[in-house]
Amino acid sequence: MVPQTYYIALSAVLFTLGALGVLVRRNALIIFMSVELMLNAANLAFVAFANTYQHLNGQIIVFFVIAVAAAEVAVGLALIVAIFKTRQSIDVDTMSSLKG
Amino acid sequence: MLLSQIPTTGFFFLAPWIVFFPVIGLLLNMLIGGRLSEKGVGWLASGASFASFVVSVLLAYSVWTGQGHGESVYLSEWMHVGALQLDWTFRVDSLSTTMMLVVSGVGTLIHIYAIGYMHEDVRFKNDPGRYRRFFVFLNLFIAAMMILVSGDSYMMLFVGWEGVGLCSFLLIGFWYDKDTLGRSSWANSDAAKKAFITNRIGDFGFLIAGFLMFWNLGSFQFDQVFEAAPALAATQPGIIIAITLFMLVGVAGKSAQIPLYVWLPDAMAGPTPVSALIHAATMVTAGVYLITRSAPLYTLVPEAQFVVAMTGAVTALFAATIAVGQYDIKKVLAYSTISQLGFMVAAVGMGAYVAGMFHLVTHAFFKALLFLSAGSVILGLERGHHHLAHHGHHDDHGEVFDPNDMRNMGGMRKTMPVTFWLYMIGTLALAGIFPFAGFWSKDEILADAFREGYTTVYWMLSIAAFFTAFYMGRQIWMVFFGQARHEAAAHAEESPRIITVPLMVLAALSVLGGALNLPGLHTLTDWLEHTIEVHAGEFLISVALISTVLALAGVFVSWLIYGRNPLKAGQPDPLKRPLGLLFTGMENKWFVDEGYWAVFVDRYVDLSRFLADVIDWRFWHDWFHEKVIAGTYNWVSNIGLNLYADQRGIDALANGLGTLTQNLSASMRKVQNGFVRSYALSVLLGVVLILGYLLLK
């Protein structure tokens, strides 16, 4: 049996990787994948605690998160495609036309 | 007026109408006079004055039938303030009706005369528009004079006293923008102001007398004052002396006595009817009336009586000497009036009230006659001058022709015979030749002076009488005898009947006026004794002889100097050489006017200048206002309010708020860089901070 601490540590590492990815990368697609990574880090933490406490609430939440993440991916990818079509680039630093 | 208050007997209830009639006359003239002809205006005014005269006669008749008992006729409440109870009450007694008869009687004659005189006067001075104004003023004067003589208290008398002063001012300055020759000049306006201001000095004395009277005797009403006076005189005679002497100041102003007589000669600037009515016959006698009315006060203090008598005597003599050296026909009469008023004041000062009133009445007759005749002479001369200019006989090189100057006259006996005879009667009456009116009245004054032991006064008045005869003789010789010294005099024309007929009435009165109080009959004495305490004057044959001799001597001396060798054109006065400086003094009115200028007027002007330049301008304006007030204000506003409060306080606060906002925004703006990653970093940092806090707390 793998101790619960390992899951939590893995989850923290994944989350940190995701957060750093969001902060340092300029490619919108990669940022998007980093966000997915952070969501899945959270999913991992939920199932780990659900397993530990033998409680189904954690498992159910994970389903919600996966559903929301799927919807998010559908909208996000559509946006990225639309942006790429107008600007021929998905570099987030150049997306500053709303800045006064 | 309530029915019960109407006096039951006689015509006393008519008393207010002596004032109302002239007032109605002047109101009518003001309202509808513009639509009337000149004659209509004149006769309306004369009618109003005559109506007043008729009422005066009825009042006098009522007093006469009532055995001399007067009545007080209450008209209306005037002022009721605390202890001050003043009503408009008419006092009708023998003294006031005497004055009323003189004022309205002589006044009516002068109104009628003025119809003719002013017609020509406005013609010669090219301003017909003033005709109506003149009669309005004249009626106003009659009304004011009636208020004066009929007043029941000193304050009511004072109302009239000021009213006649106002009319005097208005009428002296009637030609306020023209001189006697019709040229543009402010001399007449100056004369009017001089009269008004000099009279104000006198009125100030009167007012003080009034205040003292009210304070010490508690009333202004004649009877109450006279009732309370003896008790006060017993304890504090000084107050009565003060009252009477301050009253004398008022008298000196109104009746032209030393030292306030200087306005009267200048008052001759007014039209001649005014000189006759106001400045000879009626208004100037108000002072004599005042003293006579106040006889119960004066009788209490012989000291004041002495001062009054001396003032009158000195004035009589002093003015008579000035009259000798005058060339203006009206100025001679003006100084003569001052001199005769001196006689009256001396008389009432000595306690010879009847003699004073007697002389007042006869003087009103003959001096009005003389003035009006002089006016007739002046008009005759103007007509002659007009005639010459019109027919081009006279090459008028812009020469100024003064129709008042006796040196331009001469020989007018032939050109103006009626006026000559009228003037002659007036002169004989004034000079005191038997049996003309002036003889009786002046003789009574002299006799009283002699009998009462006022020897100094007696001799001064006698000498004044000599001078009177002399200067009147001089005038007659210069004006009517000899040869004409100017062509205008040679071509002078007689005046129309409207001018000469009133003169004839006055001439008749001047001849017969003495009958009012003939020795032995004492008509006027008996009449007045109902009102004031009098004693019948005795006829002293020695006094009468002396005064007659003096008068005849005066006329004779004047004949020696002016009649025997008539003055030629351009020749100086024959008295000039033998008398030298003395005559220069007489000619120049003893330099009294100049003296007054040097002592009072110039000093007053200096003081005014000092007040205006130094006190007002330099001290108040330059220093106090500019330096102290404006300087402090500027300093406070510039330094205190502007710099500290405004700039460094309010401005700094407002600007600081702005700057602070700007700076704050500038630094905040850096956060909003538009990079999603940096926002995400902030979110992360925030989460880390919150989590850190939650974990570590």
Question: Could you explain how this protein is built, in words?
Answer:
The complex is a heterodimer of chains A (100) and B (697). Chain A is mainly α. Helix content of chain A is 78%, strand content 0%. The longest helix of chain A has 31 residues. With 697 residues, chain B is mainly alpha-helical. Chain B folds into three domains: 238 residues, no CATH class; 262 residues, no CATH class; 61 residues, no CATH class. In chain B, strand 1 and strand 2 form a beta hairpin. In chain B, helix 3 runs antiparallel to helix 10 and helix 14 packs antiparallel against helix 19. The termini of chain B are far apart. The mean pLDDT of chain B is 88. Classes of the chains: A mainly alpha (100), B mainly alpha (697). Chains A and B meet through helix 1 of A and helix 27 of B.
What is the chain-wise order of helices and strands of chain A?
A: HHH
Which fold name corresponds to the CATH topology of chain A? Helix Hairpins
Q: Could you tell me the number of beta strands of chain A? A: 0
Q: Into which percent range does the helicity of residues of chain A fall? A: over 70%
Tally of individual domains of chain B: 3
- Give the biggest beta sheet of chain A: none
Mean pLDDT of chain A comes to 89
Helix content of chain B: over 70%
Largest sheet of chain B: 2 strands, antiparallel
What would you call the structural class of chain A?
A: mainly alpha
CATH class of chain A: Mainly Alpha
Tell the overall outline of chain A.
elongated
Please tell me the CATH architecture of chain A by its name. Answer: Orthogonal Bundle
Rounded Rg of chain B: 37 Å
Greatest interface and its participating residue counts: A-B, 11 and 9 residues
- State the strand order across the main sheet of chain B: 1-2
